[in-house]
Every structure is written in structure tokens, then in C-alpha cells.
Amino acid sequence: MAHPYHHAVSSVKIWGGTVEDFIGIHQWFDESKIITADFRHRALRHHAEGIFMLERFFGITLTLSTGRVVPVRLIGEQHVKEDLGFIPSFADWVKCIRPEPWMGRALPLHRCDQPAENAA
Ligand SMILES: [Zn+2]
């Protein structure tokens, strides 16, 4: 599993600049390891919607220390392709989630407008 540093080195080879120019973006993708320490952490951000979310955190473009301007989305695509070999949709990840009864559980909220029977 590639470390954010190695993704940043790869970015430097593609667009120039320094590891420091790119490391924040690659750390953002992989910080979901805080939640799940194995490869399944990628389900949180390693997909098309995650790449668009990246733009909301880092902006549309990144200006490198060299002055070159790089679209942030392209850096996100690089990261996901290096990890997975392609860019899945979130739906691709969802297809791999085994449904459990608790996932579809819901409280009968339509009854909330009725007075509570045992209210103190
Ligand atoms: Zn990653």
C-alpha cells in the first residue's frame, strides 16, 4: 500500500515542484486509515465523488512552489489510479457492502406528532 509520501514523489515526477507541494492532498486521501487500518479505508474517499470532494477542501487548482498551476482533480485521479488501477464510483464500493438488518432499521417517525403516552 503506497504511503502518501510516495504518492507525492510520483506527483513531483509528473508536475514538478516538491513533495511538500503535494503531501497534504495525498495525506487527505489516506487519513481515513484513522478509522480502518486496512485497505477498506479507501471506501471513504478513493472514488469519483472523493476526487470532487478533494476540490472542496483544496480548491480547484494547486499552485506549486515553482509557480506552476495544477488542477487538484488531476492529482486526486493520480492518487486513486495509483492505489486501485482505476477510478471507481462510490456505487462500486457500495456493491461490496454486505447488507445487515441494522443498516435499514428506522424509527417510526410518522408517529412523532402524536403525544407521548407516558410523558412525565
Ligand atoms: Zn490512498
Largest sheet entry: 2 strands, antiparallel
Strand % is 5-15%
Q: How many DSSP-defined strands?
A: 2
Structural class assignment: mainly alpha
On the 0 to 100 scale, the average pLDDT is 93
- Across the major sheet, the strand order is 1-2
Low-confidence stretches: none
Q: Globular, elongated, flat, extended or rod-shaped: what is the shape?
A: elongated
Write the element-wise H/E pattern from the N-terminal end onward. Answer: HHHEEHH
Instruction: Name every ligand kind in the structure.
Output: zinc ion
Work out the helicity level: 40-55%
Task: Report how far the terminal alpha carbons are from each other.
Answer: 56 Å
The total of helices stands at 5
What is the C-alpha radius of gyration, as a whole number of Å?
Answer: 20 Å
